[in-house]
Structures are given as C-alpha cells and as structure tokens.
Amino acid sequence: MLSTNYRILILVSASILGLAQQTYNRSNQTAPVYLRSTAGTDTYVATPTPPLTAYNRGACFDLDPDTANTGPATINITALGAKSILNRAGGALGDGDITANRITRICYGVSDFNIVGDGGAGSGSVTSVDATGGVQTASGSPITATGTVRSAYEANAQVGITYTVLTGDRGKTITFSNAAAIAVTLPVAGTGFENGWYVTAKNIGAGDVTITPTTSTISGAASIIISTGESALVRSDGTNYEAFSTRLLPGTSVNFTRSRTSTTINVTAPATASAAIDFTSVTAGVCSAATTFTLTGVAAGGEFVKGYPTAVEIGLIPVMWASATNTVSAKVCNFTGAAIDPAIGTYIATLGGGGGGGGAVSSVTGTSNEVTASPTTGAVVVGLPASVSLAGKALILPSSITLPATCSVGQIYMDTDATTGQRLYACESTNTWVKQGDGGGLTAGTGISIAGSVIGVDTASVPQFISATLSSYDIASHAVNTCEVTGNITLTGAATGDVVTIGWPAGIESGITGRAVVTAANIVVIQFCNVNTATVDPAIANFKVMIVKSF
User: Fold this and answer.
1) Can you tell me the distance from the alpha carbon of 446 to that of 277, in angstroms, rounded to the nearest whole number?
2) For residue 230, is it left (φ>0), alpha (ψ between -120 and 50) or beta?
3) Which residues pair with 267 in a beta bridge?
4) pTM
5) Which end of the chain is more exposed for a tag (fewer CB within 10 A), N or C?
6) What are the pLDDT digits (tens) for 34-64?
7) Residues 273, 277, 283, 289: is their CA dihedral positive or negative?
8) Could you give the CA distance from residue 89 to residue 235 in angstroms, rounded to a whole number?
9) Secondary structure of 438-473 in HEC code, one letter for each residue
10) What is the CATH number of domain 155-247?
C-alpha cells in the first residue's frame, strides 16, 4: 500500500490571539507575566512579551525592578498609562516596600495595582515585639500578633561599689545605694553608645558616686560626682558625654566645686528625719492618735521645719510638734462630718534651713579674687570687681536689735529696733557707727504718694491688713482628739475664700491647735482642737484673727 503524507494548515485569526491574551491576563494563572522595569525611582515602566493591550482586573505580574521605591510609586505597562502601586491594605507605599532586583508580585484591581504575597523589604507582618528595652505593650507583655506599644522607664538597681554601664542600660535609671564610695565606669562614646544614647544615674546611698568615661569626657571633665540625693541624665553625642544634673534633695550634705576654678564650698546638711505614717480611720470632729519618730537635736517644744504629705484628704489637717527631746509627734484632725481613712503619707521634720534646703557652710576655699576664708575666725571675704550690678536682685544686710561693739571702715549694718527710716548705719571710722538716714528724702513708689510729710497709700496696690480680736474667750475643756467651734467673730472686709491667720496667746496650752475660716461676708469662725494625749481645759485668753487683703 502506498504511504501518503498529509499537511494540515491551521490559521488562527488575530482576534482569537487577542482574546487568548486577555483571558491569560485576567485569570489566576500559575505563572504571572514577568516584568522587568528599567525606569526611574518610584516610576516603574515595563513592556512584556507579548505586549499588554489593556489593564484587566485580576491580572497579576512579577515585577523585577531595577531600583527600590522611596515612597508612593506607579507602574506603566506597554504605555497604557501609569497606575498606582498600593500596599496590601490599599494604602500608599512606604520607603523600601519594593526592593531593587527582588521580584514583587502585583495584581490589578479596579484602577490600580496592589502588592500581594511576599513583597519587598517592607512586606510581611510583625509576629513578636519583646516587652523589654524601653518598649512594652499596654499590659507589659510581648506582642505576638497585634497590640499597642508604649515606652517604658526601666530601672537597674546597683548595690555594689563598682559598676560598668552597659549598652542595654539605654533609657534606664540606674540607682546606686551603697554606703561607701561608688566607682562607675562609662565606656567610650561611640559604638553601642552612639549619638542619642542616654541613661539616668541616681544616688540613693550614703557614698558619693563618681562616673568616669573611658577616653571620652563628661561635661568637659574627666569625671563627675553625684552626691546623696542627686541624679544626673547622661547623654552621648557619639564622641563624648554631657551630664544634666538635677537639684539636691533636702537633707543632703554636698560639695560644690566650680568648674575651671579652684573655688569649693562645702555645705553640711541640717538634721532631718522622715516617717511614712499610715493613720487609721479618723472619726468626724476628732484627731487621730499620735505617731512619733526621731529627729536628732530637737528639744521638747522646740521649733523645726515641718514637711507634710503632698496630698492630704480634704477636711484633714495634719500637725506635728516636738513632744520630747529628739522626738517629733504627728497627728491628723478631721474637721468634716464623716470619718476619713487617711492614705499613707510622708512626714518630714528638719532643724533649721527654711524648708529643708538649708545647712551650714563648713568651709570655703578659693582664689584671692573670688572667695577666701579665715580657718580660725570663719570670716569670709568676697572679692568683687570694680562695679557690681544688682539689677533685679535684693541686697541683704546684716542686722539685729543691737549694733555690734566693733566695726571696720566700710561696713554697713541695720539696727532693726531703731526708728523707721533711721535704721541704717555705716562704720565711718574704726568701731564707730554713724546713722545714715533720718527718714527724709522719700520718693513715691507704686501704690504710694507723698505730699510733704503726708504719705498716702493705694490699698489696691499695697497690702491691707484687717484684724479682729476674740477677747477673754474661755475655751471649753477638751477631751483627747476633740474639737470646738466658737461663736462668730465680726471682721469687716472679710470675704469667703480669704486666708485667715490666728494670733495665739503666748500661754496657750500645749496640744491646742485649730483653724480660722471666713464662713460668710465679715464673719470669721475659729475651731479649736485638742491634739494632746490628755484632756485640756485652756485658760481664758485673747485670740486675734488677721487677713491680708489686696494681694
């Protein structure tokens, strides 16, 4: 049988090919069209083979870009027009969401492209955020899926006498609590301690803390010293460190050393003591039982600076007094109509110092043109330039009710019990004081007018003192922790909200305290309370109330 060869010619029209291309580009094809872009950053251009004839919904492409994006980006395929490339959430791209020479799959939607699957460097999702290193979740636990992060101010408690700061201490507060001197090493600024790295160091112990950088300087010096109660924020600039010190706490003994000079002032802190007191619930109209703590150096009935808790419940009045040698007693009195359970609070007692910040200068050293001192007499000499400006400052002169028996030429003194306007004295020759004024030559100031010997005062600018006296008042016998409200005292000009000061008689019994308030226009009421440990029947006495107006 003869063999026969057949040739079959199949013709496919251009319309059929176009339909096949469109179908391919719209389907969920297993091999998306490869696109190589050679255009500029964020404006990608590509021409596939065969060329794309239209943007069809659902068509996907594997974009192989030559550059990474730096922000919002577009792509123009086969010159069909630039279309935005959006992230998976439909938002604009961020820096690095498309990586150079790394394939990123994009699919067309209605009017733009979206990144799908594993994209560039900015793709993927966070699966874990550790709750350390200054960042925490709202609950303080790690983020494993979604969550909210917050900053964290972590602590690093050190109890030894040496410590080397770690890179991981960044953002933390390092506390030092040893009674001996503590040496702290701060590694050289730079790697791990780059520009912006910071830490807070706080001394809560008795010994000085010396922070010494390796090679680098700190505030221009080789080291800094943090005394008891002080703290310093230490920041790196990448080469050296800068320390920002906080104020001293009351009750600290410190040495002040002026930079770039030899001047040093040593200050010895006043005696101070404190106690965290948790009073039990206080019945309405009575005072709590007394709680005592030790203040070395205070005498029974002696004066001291009182520091009360920063937050005291409304209606409670805390009181402290020196109940015995070296002993301070504290109570709270309830002036409300209901029982109050006070929150625990810190009570501070300081001998002298004007609010706990005082102390005594134990020694002064310095250059001859600054400050010098006599080690035997304690006299301090201050060297001043040829002229001194006191603009905006107050010059405080030495004063007492009696002029010193001796003086040196040039000294100035104020005799506080001399006639007003005649209290200033100058030493014009050795041991000779000469009065420097007779009250004349006055000039008018704000709120004051002068006409000859007549001085007028504008009470709108100058404070006015109004007062009244509760005469021969017999305070009823008070049991322990009880209070009494007097009758009304008429004080013309008094208004609700005014601050009322009580003038107590010199012989008032120990443990009797109280307050005065303006209950209505021109009416003041005094409430007396017994905070003693026994019943007290005060003697008849006069009580004065005073209000300062026009402040």
Assistant:
1) 47
2) beta
3) 254, 361
4) 0.30
5) N
6) 888 866 788 999 988 888 899 999 899 999 8
7) negative
8) 40
9) CCCCCCCCCCEEEECCEEEECCCCCCEEEEEEEEEE
10) 2.60.120
